[in-house]
Specification:
It is built from 3 helices and no strands. The chain has helices at residues 14-27, 31-49, 53-74. It has 75 residues and is mainly α.
Length: 75
C-alpha cells in the first residue's frame, strides 16, 4: 500500500465522531489513523466475504451437473 496521502471530506454522525475522537485521545493516536484503520478493516472484511471466482465457477458447474440431486437431498 502506498504512503501517499489524499485529503477528502465527508460527513458522519456527530455522536460517532465524538466517540471516535475520544478513542483517539484515549489511545494517544491521531484521528486519521483510526479512520484509516477502520477503512482498511471494512475493505478487508468485504473482500473476504466474496467468493473467489474459481470457487464460484466450480459451484456453478457442480450445480449444473447435480442440481436435481441437491434439490432431492434438501427435501
Amino acid at each position: 500500500m502506498s504512503d501517499t496521502r489524499e485529503k477528502f471530506a465527508t460527513q458522519v454522525n456527530s455522536e460517532l465522531l465524538a466517540d471516535l475522537r475520544g478513542l483517539a485521545k484515549d489511545e494517544g493516536r491521531q484521528l486519521q489513523a483510526l479512520v484509516e484503520e477502520a477503512i482498511e478493516g471494512l475493505l478487508e472484511q468485504r473482500k473476504q466475504s466474496k467468493a473467489r471466482p474459481h470457487v464460484m465457477t466450480a459451484y456453478k458447474a457442480s450445480h449444473a451437473r447435480f442440481g436435481s440431486l441437491y434439490k432431492k437431498l434438501a427435501e
